[in-house]
Amino acid sequence: MKLDEQAQAALSYQNYPVPPAIEGVVHQPLKKYRSLEGAFMEHLRLTGGQVEGLPTPFEARQISVSWAVPGRINAFHIHPKRTQDEVWCVLEGELLVWLVDVRADSPTQGNRRYFLLTGEAPALLYIPSGVAHGYRAGHRGALLMYVMNDQFNASDPNEGRLPWDFFGAHLWADDRG
How far does CA 94 lie from the centroid of its chain? Predict the structure, then answer.
């Protein structure tokens, strides 16, 4: 097909690179059973406090819920004082989640990867300690349920914060392509 010169000069092509791995991160789709009456989904199965089905041992110590208004950026945080791994699941709405491996001894140190978590296609996202994480809520906002293997302690919080744009403001920019 022949295009006019102006369109041909401005033309670019979408590419679909394989996203870089981050050691220990697990993305596991969940099955959502739907019917006319509603839907049902198993979130986690536990045996003796241990989460079944993850490739690494994980003892659930706290379950929390976070509501994000549309467009909210909550980034970046890490848990440097004590090991705190997390398992995230979006129940409603959508989150663009960015993960960055900041572990000095990791074979994937410096790797960045995003995930789109939605209530329509629910999944578990396992985030190991030392992986910086943050999100931007979609146009409907989001309801996030997450499980931790550490408990929140208000007198000694384990919430290390990096600036929202520490890895570049472009991570949160709208795709206008």
Answer: 10
Q: Decide: helix, strand or coil at residue 170.
A: helix
pTM of the entire structure?
0.91
Alpha carbons within 13 angstroms on the beta-carbon side of residue 107 total 4
Report the residue count for the chain. 177
Q: Which two tokens stand for residue 164?
A: 């929202």
Tens digit of each residue's pLDDT, the chain (177 residues): 888 999 999 998 888 989 999 999 999 999 999 999 999 999 999 998 899 999 999 999 999 999 999 999 999 999 999 999 999 999 999 999 999 999 999 999 999 999 999 999 999 999 999 999 999 999 999 999 999 999 999 999 999 999 999 999 999 998 776
